Amino acid sequence: MHRLTAVSIRHPRVVLAVWATLFIAGALLALRLDGALSGGGFTNPRADALQAQAVLEEKFDEAPNQLVIVLSAADPVTEAAIDEAADLAREAGADRVTLPSEQADLASDDGRTVAVVAGFTADSTTVQNLVPELQASLDEQGIAADAYVTGQPALDYQLNAHSKADAIRAELIGFPILIVVLLLVFGSVVATILPLLVAGSALMISMGIGTLATGVTEISNLYTNIVSMIGLAVAVDYSLFIIKRFREELAAGRSTTEAIHVTMATAGHSVLFSGFAVAPALSALFVPQVMALTSIALGGIVVALVALAVTMLVLPAGLALLGARIDAGRLPFSSRRKRPVSVAGSARIRRPGLVGLAGAAVMIIAALPIAGLSLQSPVASATVLPAGDPARAGLELLETDIGQEGLFPVDVILTFPEGTTAATALAETGEARDWLVDHSGVDGVLDVTQFAPSGSPLAQALGDGTVPAEVERLWSSTGGAIATRLLVTTSEGPDTVGTHDLVKSIRADLTGRIDGGVDVAVTGATAQGVDFDETIIGSIPAIAAIVLTLTFIMLALAWRSILLPLLALVFNLLVVGASVGLLTLVQGAISDVPLNSVTPILLFAVMFGLSMDYMVIIMSRMRELYRDGLGYEQAVLQGAARTRGMINSAAVIMIAVFLSFMTAQISIVREIGIGLAIAVALDAVVIRMLVMPSILRAIGPRAFGRRAEPEPAVDPDAGREAPVREPALT
After folding, report:
1. Verdict on whether the full-model pTM lies above 0.85
2. N or C: which end of the chain has fewer CB within 10 A?
């Protein structure tokens, strides 16, 4: 690290020129990011439901992507209006259009609300990009009082559009708050500007990298949100730690070069360790191999590493050029006088072990609501979108006037063994239908037996290998292999707990109700949601094991201790548990929608990465003081007291950034923002300033190991860094 610092100091203008070039290149690439991102990502492409969907496309010629045009008026919608909507869909590229005259459940009883279903064989991203143009055409034509484009591709497109707006809105809110906080912390205009430049460039370069990454893999719109959320927080915090220490070294009488070397050997070392800790924690989110989590992990890792690179390479170059001018533009209310550090409050705690355990108990109590936690991904729901969004408005119209159960049925596919006769397949399908009709939560079942009862001409035609047009969507006999399809409409919506339970019951019990050898597959929006939730929940042990193991190894190597890393894991688990518990209470108070299944595991991974900042900074300062000769009790108290202001400032910055995402119109972004804000507040105030010092005092000197003779951090004559035993921040 010393060599990199030396390069920045010796060639600051070259470093800044390279940084400016990367910034411009990132900005140009970032302009193309929105069109390259994909909506959705809350499905598991390897799960049963998606594999069954492929069977539908192959055997029943089912269009993989469907848009739904919803028309509503005060009077019954005319056939001319319906035909015009169908024509617009065909002009947009629809391969198949289904009208209410062909499917009765696409119109309300009074005919005032109708749906036109347009099927597309194009990929999902292509269909998503058709949505705004099709919606604009409907608005221009004015064929009904209300005309909306909805369906899963439309929901995904709107999710993408609102995610971009959410990120921009949060940045517009966050940056002014950061300016105020940094002005209060530094009391200097120049010192305030530097972290903002670091953060802004980190965001822009990371967005540009995201554009390049879309050429390799599909990336969700959540990439933008996580880059803004994590990038603003860590970039400003890292800069804060570096600049604050640099100013202190200047105030101690060091030259600019010496001050930078000392700063990077101490605060820089801590920042470097903290930055690299984020990547392993977030890398655990790659385990489920689903686009939403993969995009979040990629965005968080990219922006953390970019922010780290800018902080470690570009910021020293800027400091080398500025020198003492870092204090230029000092505000009237600021003071250069250094206030004495007070540890009186902590010193008065006579039973630190009891205080520490009490604080931990409070955190455990805050985590208790997790016992009633309900997790579910909103695969077939528009509630993640803001009210008034056209895709949401159209879906809500369908639900109110027609019932969206018919548009999002539970799709059951029976595939029969080779050699099965049509008569046998019809009989087995009838048994399956009878079982489904009697099942709780089922409102109706559409299957081939309703059109081809035993002995009917249609049944005989099927036996001869002929598939009449009226049952093509329900019967397939390709190559002599028979497959039938049962469309189950439910008594509740597709995203309800009852419908999720129905899917699980069909998968578990239906096979036993019909003769052996028949393969039963279930697909549809609800089944895809069930598979996604099970994928996430099933990945929790692996994700937790990876995060805990990597965190432990990194801390053990850094501190050469077993006890301290174990304490760190316990403290972090307390923070994550309490924050998820409190988030559960908040969610229950403001909404009846369950938490997104992604939110808790995301909070777990992100907080383990971010909390390393506080852990490394405070603990390193305590150990440095102890190894430099201060008594153990005083080292703990002084270490906590001397880092309190910096930790609180960093926490305020992170909380301000995360809370700015409360304005997001996408529900999962709001959940993540609120959850991370709660977690940072608990981590900084309860754990780092109360529980951790108290527990360390109770454990005694064995927590820090054997005391060693202090080593000089810097050779004043050469201005070069000597070996530094531990990173520390004063």
Report:
1. no
2. N
